[in-house]
Specification:
With 297 residues, the chain is of the alpha+beta class. It has two domains: 28-55 and 181-278, 2-Layer Sandwich (Beta-Lactamase); 58-178, PAS domain (Beta-Lactamase), CATH 3.30.450. It is 49% helix and 25% strand. The longest helix is centred in the first third of the chain and has 66 residues, at 4-69.
Length: 297
């Protein structure tokens, strides 16, 4: 125990000397935390861009596969005849081609957009999208096109291309790769994140079951975030932190094919938060060490 006027004076001087040091350490700790948080946001922003590029490439791949298949002479002949029986005779070959193209739904339509062949892998929902679908409409007008959107009420990559024979359209190919759990797991594996997809009904599939309970309203920007965006000081993405199954994640939302269609990307924030905690412990350890040294000196 410090007693006497001399001891109290020394203690006061020690405190006066250490307060600026503690303040400096607190400031350094805040800077370190801010940098780590910025790094975390930068990482998930990079991953989000990667996911968007991956889905764009997947769209092009489906469209390219259909364009290649549209040159198949056997297929052209079957479609030119307009006979469903001829098309069904090639059902085994078509199913094999579908698996190679890695598309979930494959349809052959006649020149007017009527279905001659339809095969849906791994699901049993009924057909509800017809010739009125914008992608099929474009094909009916002679334009091969693709988009991310709803088909048969489910979100995915939708592509269609006209099939020409002797200079005229004889039919159409439609391919759909759905954003289902399998697709989410492929994206998650490539990006080392957790992924959920949502449509107008909310989150319908995710690599973590608990992600299905995420309230998408969470990603609505606050007034402060909107003000920052208006003044050019904000970030284009909205970032949110949430614990899932006891693990801290930083999340962002991607729009895919419309405001109410997209994905939520979640990155495990544990390594960065642990690094921040370790930095804080080191800084406070230095403060404590300096204090003990001063007391014992």
């Amino acid at each position: 125990m410090v007693t006497g006027i001399r001891g109290k004076t020394l203690l006061a001087m020690l405190l006066i000397a250490l307060l600026p040091l503690a303040g400096s350490f607190l400031y350094l700790s805040k800077i370190s935390n801010d940098r780590l948080k910025t790094e975390l946001k930068t990482r998930i922003d990079t991953i989000a861009n990667f996911v968007q590029r991956t889905t764009s490439l997947a769209q092009q791949q489906v469209a390219n596969d259909l364009a290649l298949l549209a040159r198949n002479d056997s297929l052209k002949s079957a479609l030119a005849a307009g006979d469903p029986a001829l098309v069904q005779a090639d059902a085994g070959l078509l199913a094999d081609l579908q698996k190679r193209m890695q598309i979930d739904l494959f349809e052959l339509l006649d020149r007017d957009g009527n279905t001659l062949y339809r095969n849906l892998l791994g699901a049993g929902w009924p057909a509800s999208s017809g010739s009125e679908h914008p992608v099929i409409e474009a094909s009916l007008e002679g334009e091969a096109t693709y988009e991310i959107g709803l088909f048969d009420g489910h979100l995915g990559i939708v592509a269609a291309t006209p099939v020409y024979s002797a200079g005229r359209i004889v039919g159409h190919l439609v391919g759909v790769s759905y954003f289902d759990e399998g697709f989410a797991r492929r994206i998650a594996s490539l990006s080392n994140t957790e992924v959920a997809f949502f449509d107008t009904s909310g989150i319908y599939t995710a690599t973590l079951e608990k992600m299905k309970t995420i309230d998408l309203g969470l990603f609505r920007p606050t007034e402060a975030e909107l003000d920052a965006l208006r003044t050019g000081g904000g970030h284009g993405r909205i970032f949110r932190h949430q614990d899932i199954n006891g693990t801290p994640y930083v999340m962002t939302q991607l729009s895919l094919g419309g405001a109410k269609l997209g994905a939520v990307i979640a990155l495990d924030a544990s390594p960065v938060l642990q690094a921040a905690a370790a930095m804080k412990r080191i800084l406070w350890g230095l403060v404590l060490g300096a204090t003990l040294f001063a007391l014992l000196a």
